[in-house]
Write a structure and sequence with these properties.
By secondary structure, the chain is α/β, with parallel strands linked by helices. The chain folds into two domains: 144 residues, D-Maltodextrin-Binding Protein, domain 2, CATH 3.40.190.10; 91 residues, Periplasmic binding protein-like II (D-Maltodextrin-Binding Protein, domain 2), CATH 3.40.190. It is 31% helix and 20% strand. The protein has eleven helices and twelve strands. A five-stranded mixed β-sheet has the order 9-8-10-7-11, with helices on both faces. A three-stranded parallel β-sheet has the order 4-1-5, sandwiched between helices. A two-stranded antiparallel ribbon has the order 2-3. The longest helix is centred in the last third of the chain and has 16 residues. It is globular, with a radius of gyration of 20 Å. The N terminus is likely disordered. Bound molecules: arginine. The site of arginine has 14 residues, from loops.
């Protein structure tokens, strides 16, 4: 059965803006870097002590001078990056409060975390907005160095990509229109339609568990919420923190029930990217232990940082 818990809510309501897909940029950048990706595994001994300066010298941004990159980064060649000095990161930037566009800028917990990791590695983080349903294929096909997108670590996904250590814990939730008769997943009877985002763990769970209801897949979470507000569907099933953010910005949508799925988010990486994974994991650990994680967390969420990330 399901458990109800306090909702992790974002601090302030934020306006959602339409997301412009940077497909042309993605293609261009992917084309530039094709030759040194999937087919070219990292050397067995990627972490050397003499290499950090090289990375810093080639990076085009001011962040290249951070000291933290020296212990784990190694050279760009060892990290097998698509472009020197840069971390090309795919993300479906439409999942507030993790990644969303406001005033033309990428914002959110994942964005802050990834930028912090990049800065510590002396790498310029370049986000490429990309549809979630296809993000794993794009990564495995060599289009990105990494993906961050509130991505749940699953065994199935690990068949085609690798993950960093977990950086966030989340459940799923059922959202309904204000005043709906649906109070919990037990009310998802025949004739009820539930919106999900295509390619997500929420879609998979809903398809498996809500067998009486009709599951309707949308390309983005926002498309599902809009359909809910437009009365085209009866509920939305998606990651709880996203429901928290959406509920806060409006009085038309409300949380019906939290569903305990115990998911952990990770940064997605190509399977042959041990050096990059080690470097990212080292920075992630430092970010957690030195208090930076808490700083970023409290920008986007209320309440204490969960114990495993303290
Ligand atoms: N955590 C869910 C999953 O991994 C949903 C992620 C959706 N992320 C996004 N940026 N749209 O399937």
């Amino acid at each position: 059965m399901t458990r109800r818990r306090r909702v992790t809510r974002p601090l302030a309501s934020r306006r959602r803006l339409a997301v412009a897909l940077c497909a042309a940029l993605a293609l261009l950048l992917a084309a530039c870097g094709e030759e040194d990706t999937a087919a070219d595994p990292a050397p067995a001994d990627p972490v050397t002590t003499d290499a950090a300066g090289t990375t810093a010298a080639t990076a085009t941004d001011a962040a290249a001078t951070t000291e933290a990159g020296t212990d784990a980064a190694g050279t760009d060649a060892e990290l097998s990056l698509i472009a020197e000095g840069q971390l090309l990161v795919g993300s479906d930037v439409a999942f507030e409060p993790f990644e969303f566009i406001e005033d033309g800028e990428n914002k959110g917990f994942d964005i802050d975390l990834m930028n912090e990791i990049g800065e510590r590695l002396g790498l310029q983080v370049e986000f490429v907005n990309t549809p979630f349903d296809g993000i794993f294929t794009a990564l495995a096909g060599g289009q990105f160095d990494a993906i961050i997108s509130a991505i749940t670590i699953t065994e199935e996904r690990q068949e085609t990509i690798a993950f960093s250590d977990p950086y966030f814990a989340a459940n799923q939730a059922l959202a309904v229109a204000a005043g709906s008769d649906i109070a919990s997943v037990d009310d998802l009877a025949e004739g009820v339609s539930v919106g999900v985002q295509s390619g997500t763990t929420g879609e998979e769970y809903a398809t498996g568990e809500f067998s009486a209801a009709e599951i309707v897949s949308f390309p983005t979470s926002e498309a599902a919420f809009s359909a809910l507000e437009g009365d085209q569907i009866d509920a939305v099933f998606i990651d709880l923190p996203v429901v928290g953010a959406r509920v806060e910005g409006t009085d038309t949508v409300e949380l019906a029930e939290e569903v305990d799925t115990d998911e952990l988010y990770g940064i997605g990486l190509p399977q042959d990217s041990e050096a990059l994974r080690d470097a990212i994991n080292a920075e992630l650990e430092a970010i957690i232990t030195d208090g930076t994680y808490e700083e970023i967390y409290s920008t986007w969420f209320e309440g204490d940082v969960p114990e495993q990330f303290q």
